[in-house]
Amino acid sequence: MNNNIKLKGTYTFEIRDVNGNIRDSWTVDNVVTNAGKAELANLTGNVSTPTEFTYIAVGTDNTAASATQTALVAEITDSGLERASGTVSRQTTTTTDDTYQITKTWTASGSKTVEEVGVFNAASAGTMLSRALTTSKAVTSGETITATYQLRFS
């Protein structure tokens, strides 16, 4: 019997042009941060007033993801791409409700090149659960970018 719990996180993205047509879509794996793992343990035991991970943010830096990071390197705070609350749910991957999911769609009001993404438990600062590099993806005014993060427990 194997009682080890493994975490596997994946971000899926979609960019739509101003007419709603899919311009780009891709998937990247993430790094679950040390602080994120600690907060998951807090949530499991309701220790230290834990806070759920309900926010998602994008940024413009392509520094490699590391488990020791606690924030995005260059979080976007304008152009309609600010950190925001996402829609959180549980999904079934292997066993019922074994996957946490958060989805957010932003509409750009300016032009940015998105390079990084992260999930947080606060509207500002807070604990970063995970971080990933998106590869360089330009988003222009009127386009939408949707990020869906899934964290599978297996």
β content, as a range?
A: over 45%
Described by the principal axes of the CA atoms, the overall outline is globular
Nearest-integer average pLDDT: 94
Give helix % range.
Answer: under 10%
Report how far the terminal alpha carbons are from each other.
13 Å
- Based on secondary structure, the structural category is mainly beta
Number of domains: 1
| CA radius of gyration | 15 Å
Kindly state the number of beta strands: 10
Largest sheet descriptor: 5 strands, antiparallel
Strand order of the largest sheet: 2-1-10-7-6
| Low-pLDDT residue spans | none
Return the string of H and E elements. EEEHEEEEEEE
How many separate helices? 1
Description:
It is a single chain. With 154 residues, the protein is mainly β. The protein has one domain (7-153). It is built from one helix and ten strands. It has one helix at 34-45, and strands at 7-16, 22-29, 31-32, 55-59, 84-85, 87-91, 99-107, 112-120, 128-139, 144-153. The protein has a five-stranded antiparallel sheet with strand order 2-1-10-7-6, with no helix packed on it. The chain has a five-stranded antiparallel sheet with strand order 3-9-8-4-5. The chain is globular, with a radius of gyration of 15 Å. The protein starts with 6 loop residues before the first strand and ends with a strand.
